[in-house]
Amino acid sequence: MKKFGRILSVVLCFVMLLAFAACSKAPEKTDDTGLKTVESGKLIMATNAAFPPYEYYEGDKIVGIDAEIAQLIADKLGLTLEIADIEFDSIIPGVQQGKYDMGMAGMTVTDERKEKVSFSDSYAKGVQVVIVKTGSEIKSMDDIDGHKIGVQQGTTGDIYASDTPENGGYGEESVVRYANGALAVEGLKSGKVDCVIIDNEPAKAYVAANEGLEILEGTWVDEDYAISFAKDNTALQQAVNDALKELIADGSVQKVVDKYIKAD
To answer: Are 153 and 89 a contacting pair, CB within 8 Å?
Structure first.
């Protein structure tokens, strides 16, 4: 009986110690915004910072249209913005896997992407154009077929151009993929490709920085840019949409766009 009593005393002491430890444990921090984010208090945006004027480096800082709009959204939501610079075609998988809260990289809404992620409302329009060398035998969009085409891997330029001719593309064998637009332009300059399909604004920046290149007249395709989210994070998607609506309505988004894109 005495042995049983000693065992009972030890068990009771152990239970009391566990209870004390539980009571003294610091409470878990919760995000005051009530939003589900990768890190409490932060809004982590995945981008590919080689797409001027939407995202690019000034020194060691990522700037551009997307960076500034994302900062305005974060401010509205009471969160601290953090930007992760990764490969473009890693953005959607990273958002899906919960590594990043959202993807914002001059990203076009497509049916294929909508199967993997959700999108915000559109905040900007994109126009795909074609860069060629001055004096190229490619004089118009009709002359592209049969030539080597440089694209940034994973972009809509890549998706559309590598599609079958029946669907308006040129076929996989015609497309050369690069990690970013700058490398695609270098491929054009060195003769590895005959043209580059890319968005109009970065195209203008690349042509301005590289003598002997020009943009064909006309547009290859028109698109809408939006922000991507994990499909199960509807609260964050809605919060960002609400913030975007306010920022568009009060002219803040247009002010950012006008800062980087001057009217012709």
So the answer is: yes
3-state secondary structure the chain: CHHHHHHHHHHHHHHHHHHHHHHHCCCCCCCCCCCCCCCCCEEEEEECCCECCCEEEECCEEECHHHHHHHHHHHHHCCEEEEEECCHHHHHHHHHCCCCCEECCCCECCHHHHCCCEECCCCEEEEEEEEEECCCCCCCHHHCCCCCEEEECCCHHHHHHCCCHHHCCCCHHHEEEECCHHHHHHHHHCCCCCEEEEEHHHHHHHHHHCCCEEECCCCCEEEEECCEECCCCHHHHHHHHHHHHHHHHCCHHHHHHHHHCCCC
pTM listed for this prediction: 0.73
Segment 37-77, tens digit of pLDDT: 999 999 999 999 998 899 999 999 999 999 999 999 999 99
- Is the CB of residue 100 less than 8 Å from the CB of residue 94? yes
Q: How far is CA 49 from the centre of its chain?
A: 9
Residue range 127-179, pLDDT digits in tens: 899 999 999 999 999 999 999 999 999 888 998 999 999 888 999 999 999 99
Instruction: Burial-class residue 238 by CB neighbours within 10 Å (0-12, 13-18, 19+).
Output: middle
Q: Which of 75, 123, 149 is nearest to 228 (CA)?
A: 123
Say which amino acid occupies 101: D
